[in-house]
Amino acid sequence: MRDSITASEVSEPYAQALMSLAKSSDLIDRFGEDVAFLRSLLAESEELQQVLANPLIKPEAKKGILRQLASEQVHPYTLNFLFLLVDRGRILFLDNICKQYQALLRELKQAVLAEVSAPVELTEAQQEAVRNKVKELTGAQQVDLETRINPDLIGGVVIKVGSQVYDTSLRGQLRRIGLKLMGSS
């Protein structure tokens, strides 16, 4: 618990500083793309996470790795921001900072994050249907999807928006039927 509080305390000011730079440079969406790219990079490579978090690896080596992996993909301001995080020993919070930036971006754009669990990868049409349903339920202008494959689900999806959970899975439907049957006996 304490680790998540510390991560939040460290990540929030950096995310706000990045947002401030994005606003003043008119690069809000570009930085949004950059942080999405960085999060996917971190998610794909456990090794990269370990290298960035390792205090024994010199800052210049970390900067070289980041330059090699990201310089072609991210805006130069974003790359400089990464170097600043390395210099200040905060690069291990990169994923949390990126998450915080995405939350600030959603707030700015009146968007919500819908975490969707499905038994298989969703098609574009299914993703659009989920977005439309979430817009209808929440009144949001825009919906960002974060999908996860959960093979334990038989069919349908489970959608989490903030603290609200919309369970349209077969398992959820069967559970509700079971509760109704138990309640009527």
UniProtKB/TrEMBL annotation:
GO terms for cellular component: plasma membrane-derived thylakoid membrane; proton-transporting ATP synthase complex. Pfam families: OSCP (PF00213). It comes from the Bacteria. SUPFAM superfamilies: N-terminal domain of the delta subunit of the F1F0-ATP synthase (SSF47928). It is found in: Cellular thylakoid membrane; Membrane. PROSITE patterns: ATPASE_DELTA. GO terms for molecular function: proton-transporting ATP synthase activity, rotational mechanism. InterPro entries: ATP_synth_OSCP/delta_N_sf, ATPase_OSCP/d_CS, ATPase_OSCP/dsu. F(1)F(0) ATP synthase produces ATP from ADP in the presence of a proton or sodium gradient. F-type ATPases consist of two structural domains, F(1) containing the extramembraneous catalytic core and F(0) containing the membrane proton channel, linked together by a central stalk and a peripheral stalk. During catalysis, ATP synthesis in the catalytic domain of F(1) is coupled via a rotary mechanism of the central stalk subunits to proton translocation. This protein is part of the stalk that links CF(0) to CF(1). It either transmits conformational changes from CF(0) to CF(1) or is implicated in proton conduction. This is ATP synthase subunit delta.
